[in-house]
Amino acid sequence: MKSALIFFYKKSNRYSYNALIGALEKYFQLSGIDIFIPSNEQNLLQILKNISNNYKLIILTISFFTTQVFETIELIKKVKFLNIKNLKLIAGGPHPTGEPERTLKIGFDFVLVGEGEITFPEAIIKIINNESIPQIIYPQNKIDLNDFFPLPRLKIKKFGPIEITRGCPFFCNFCQTSRIFGGKVRHRSIENILDIIKYLKKENRTDIRFITPNAFAYGSKNGREINFKAIEILLKEIKNILKDDGRIFFGSFPSEVRPEHVNEDTVSIIKKYCSNDNIVIGAQSGSEKILKLSNRQHGVKDIFNAVKITKKFGLTPNVDFIFGLPGEDENDIIETLNVMRELITLGARIHAHTFMPLPQTPYKKSPPGKISKLFYNEFKHDIPDGIIFGNYIQQEKLAEKIYNYFNS
Q1: Which of 126, 200, 216, 281 holds its CA 20 to 30 A away from the CA of 258?
Q2: CATH (domain of 40)
């Protein structure tokens, strides 16, 4: 009998799965395994019921963020209730990476920590062959992005943005990225990216987007200095391949840029080669004190400069702010609201978030973020117009639950 491998392919986790599926196909032809890719809980549970007696082994993989930990706990309870004897559960992603022991206690059999392009296929092969492996599987080395084609080339075709950089040198106190991928930046080569673009064009997938902690750090040796030449060559060569048959989006969702890297040269490159109508700028606070406490390593002046230059080139600045960062008092709130008000006057939109403690970060045990009444009093007329947007209200409620979870 064959084995079955199930990817719980939720929209919010699909980028991770695209990389893992491609890595899996790099290792073997999948001839001895059937793949199922349910996209919601109902489909997942139905598939498990339908196939429980048809395979010698069923492996269910779930990747999740800390924001998804509670729904994952409930899902695993439902999966366990089915009482499938030949089922193995594997967890991966940001939350399991930061909380591997507690993830096992949720009910998983194995946890993959950190980058999974190598450890995931190895684990799958060993589990299928009934070989012994540890419950918590750690990566041995940081991977070279060029070694892994981010798109499946064989049976399964799932497409998404191209990951061009891993690692971040800034180690912001609220962010898990540097802790998962390290402080040294690793870039996918231009040649490798262009090979991917050619593949995508053959598949008629010509809206090109990128995954990177900071788009303007592409090609930089340290992630702090800008490599203008690398960015322009990359975008120019992609444009030459696509010609008029596609669009390039750089520095916009699902990526962002740091404010101190926004200048006339970087934005002019975007205007020349890309189809963006916006740039996502990570500001996070309008208080110099909070920026320093959070280890952001830029100032409020950089935020204003980034917004002004973005508008000068006819693009909309979508500026990220986080409410309730640790150490924030009423003076910091007032300073941030003043900055937000002025940025809106300059033509920016505010993408609002509420601080949530995350594993591995210095702020893991910090109190959850709260949205000040001053914010609602100040901007109650702007929120319906889309000038301020985001899931900050839902995040405030979730932050409280996460805080209690970490401190229980």
Answers
A1: 200
A2: 3.40.50.280
